[in-house]
Design brief:
With 240 residues, this protein is α/β, with parallel strands linked by helices. The chain is built from 5 helices and 12 strands.
Length: 240
């Protein structure tokens, strides 16, 4: 017995009809989806949007961002998309966005805490993050950290440690510099400038704090600078 295998022939007209029907189905489904979205927006509109925790973040900018997104209705709000957009704002550290039935959206914002100006140009947060918000939102009287690129974490650690050492003097750092030769210089908020060198930084500063009452006392304004680079002592240059 011989079995002859024949070739299956595709009817071009039949394929065209299938394509048209499929395309029509997609169009109809898209139309139905659009109508449902419109109905959801109309039946369940968002009436209240509350934003908490904003201080440095531009409120008007937040409002302009949120309005088009929440006008889509309670069930169609993309919470993750709103969060991603708000996280792009320079002052925002973390945030949460939630829908509250039946018509409210709440946004809780945690802003970055700027602890210093970095190289006079941008801000440094308490977590060591560099960020560049609008100049008019910069906090006033921030200390300055000046150093090589990529050294902000190291400098922030020394900044915090030195400030803790200075507590007995009721003084803080107003300027801290790490030079290209990795020597340290700092200026206190009482005007005293300190040359510290490149090693035993904290030990030398601790010694300075201990002898401060006897050497400086209440004459801080009369000092031009103090040189702590000596292994067993220090030099004080007084103003003329």
């Amino acid at each position: 017995m011989h079995i002859r295998k024949g070739k299956q022939l595709h009817n071009p007209f039949h394929l065209t009809q299938i394509f048209k029907i499929t395309l029509l189905g997609i169009v109809v489904l898209s139309f139905i989806f659009a109508i449902n979205q419109f109905k959801l927006s109309s039946y369940f509109p968002v009436k209240t949007v509350r934003v908490y925790g904003i201080n440095r973040v531009d409120q008007r900018e937040v409002q302009e961002l949120l309005l088009p997104l929440v006008n889509r209705g309670f069930f169609t709000i993309n919470v993750e998309y709103i969060r991603d957009r708000l996280m792009q704002m320079p002052w925002v550290s973390t945030l949460s966005v939630r829908r509250i039935w039946p018509d409210r959206v709440e946004v809780d914002v945690v802003e970055k805490n700027a602890v210093a100006r970095w190289n006079q140009a941008i801000l440094l947060s308490e977590n060591g993050e560099l960020f560049s918000p609008k100049q008019e939102t910069y906090p006033s009287n921030l200390p300055t950290l000046i150093g090589p690129e990529g050294q902000q974490i190291t400098m922030l650690q020394y900044f915090n440690q030195i400030n803790r050492l200075l507590v007995p003097l009721h003084a803080k750092i107003s300027s801290l510099e790490l030079t290209p030769y990795f020597t340290w210089k700092l200026t206190l908020n009482n005007g005293i400038a300190l040359q510290v060198g490149h090693k035993d930084i904290l030990t030398r500063l601790d010694h300075f704090v201990k002898v401060y009452p006897k050497i400086v006392g209440n004459r801080a304004s009369d000092i031009e600078y103090v040189d702590l680079r000596y292994p067993n002592g220090m030099a004080v240059r007084w103003k003329a």
